[in-house]
Design goal:
Largest interface: A-B, 33 and 21 residues
Oligomer: heterodimer
Shape of chain A: globular
Strand content of chain B: under 5%
Helix content of chain B: over 70%
Number of helices of chain A: 7
CATH topology of the largest domain in chain A: Rossmann fold
Order of helices and strands of chain A: EEEHEEHEHHHEHEHEE
CATH class of the largest domain in chain A: Alpha Beta
Largest sheet of chain A: 6 strands, mixed
CATH architecture of the largest domain in chain A: 3-Layer(aba) Sandwich
Amino acid sequence: MADTLLSLENVYHRYSISRDIFNDISLNIKEGDFYFITGSSGAGKTTFLKLLSSSLRPTSGSVLFSGVNLNTIPQNKIYLIKRKIGFVFQDFRLLPHLTTYENVALPLKVQNKKEKNYKKDVVELLNWVNLEHCTHSYPNYLSGGEQQRAAIARAVISTPKLILADEPTGNVDYENSKKILSLFSEMNKLGTTIIIATHDESLISHKRASIINIENNGIRIRSK
Amino acid sequence: MNIINKVINKSEAKRVMKQLAPRPSSIISSTNFHSKYLFIVISLLSYLITILLTSFVILIGQPEFSALSIGMIQTSLISWVTLIFIIFIIISYIIIYGTHTSIIYNRNTINILIQLGASNNFVISKIVYSFTKIGLTAGLTGSFAGLITIIFINPFLLQISGLFNNISDLVVVSSNSVYAQYYIFILIPLFIIAVCSISSYVTVKRLVKKYY
């Protein structure tokens, strides 16, 4: 029986007096789970991911990550939680002045790890995502699919417990979407919990996973 | 033969690794316009401080200066110190403004770093380091240029102003003040580094706490 990695308890979130996003949602996500988050545009998929990644605190209720309440953790210690979570953005968010290698190594660099200790891992990871030919290239010279694969490599380099992806296939074609999904599936097989926000039905049909549908300020879970 | 092969393979692996993993560049980009602008302005101010301080050191070594009334000496001392203090305040203000600009310019980078798990101290250290580097290079450039100016120009200026009766006095005064000049040459870059790092540290700490 896998341990609970993430737990939402009676979470209520609103952006303004007139705009409720979530109204009393509760959810348990276990280690090694694979979830898709679906919902119409503006339903709150990104907000949901932000709540899970400790980038946003709920108006009320609690979000627990490995038993740690993200609401009570001091703001200057949030980075310790963020180091355990890999985040993949729709717009990749690679730093344009760093090479692919440097971008992938960034999560380890911000942890003040010595380059000699991770150099080999980064090169191996670049091989894993088929970007060995782009090691020296700057993000602007990569295609959309290559940039997204670099962003995935950056998210997994620090071996996080959880990977959150916000529309990871939103800017790539169908073939690249399949490649990206297979990378996530491989990570999941190794025990990493994956949560992907998407409205790409073809992506969902390719993977047998639980679906969290966000609608009417609440969530509806469809198990695999 | 086996050992030789091992050594060759190891060096080949190192060479391949070096090619695949290049030397990392600065995370917070500092090649933008404002860092060059800051370097030029702080170099000029550092040059000005060097000229002012060195000329002051030369002046107080003169017998004519000692012959002045105490009131005159105090006034000139206060004027000099105030002037140098104002220049340091200007440097500090420029650095504070530069830090604000740097944070605005690099806000996307900082957001990504924080999302990737960078602590506030990591972000602060990267920004403060870039301004300390500017302070070091600008301080050294300015004080070196000032020292060169003083060494080559000052004897002629003193001669023209008629403070000396003959060239032998000039040589004596120059050799007396030469140690003080070297101290100034070392101290000014150190003071400028201190002003740059403290100003940027205080500013960036406040801003990072406020926005991130």
